[in-house]
Design goal:
alpha/beta, 7 helices, about 30% strand
Length: about 240
Amino acid sequence: MKAPRKQETVEADVVEIQGLGKTYMMGKVPVYALRGVDLRIKTGDFVAIIGPSGSGKSTLLNLIGALDKPTDGKVLIDGVDVSTLNGNQLADLRCKVGFVFQFFNLIPRLSALENVELPLTITGVDKDERRTRARELLQTVGLEGRADHRPAELSGGEQQRVAIARALANNPSFLLLDEPTGNIDTKTSQEIIALLKRLNKESGVTTIVVTHDQRVASQAKKAVFLLDGRVERMSSVEAGD
């Protein structure tokens, strides 16, 4: 399989979070989703963000991906403070983030190849170049023979692989994955975990995974444990080869 284009491996901060807080109002009652979170993620990291339901994992994911705004603190992506950007700049910034969602979010009427091409179409890449790039990425995730199949004709694991290929299309600064094994069976989950680990190890793809799955966490280089909106602890994980 062809690997994605090798990314720069200099240890710079891809994501830096400073005193991050997010408060929602339930009527007149404040709900503190995040409280003073500090976190630094470097190029080539594979980070698992872990915690029980209600710990703030999804909120943190949305803030890192510039899908929401913090109440307090800052999110810096490649050194840029997200809160200083206007709408067009935010749209450009989101192209640096490869999103992979639990329920795949593929376009049903498009083939696997066309789904992977979509981000390249949005960013104005020439048709021949984007078609070549999309085929290379499907080969990377082991789906070169399924390029013409629509999502309904693919298994859950195959759909997740298409979603990962699509997320890699624009050579993002990092992958941001929301429960990538949460909607597939155990065997397929193991295959997706192995794929993510290989992409990180061989191609230097910076990977941030929000998960309940301890198997995913055990393969990450670092684990961040959230509880009640705070970082309870962080640890380096000795993942096996």
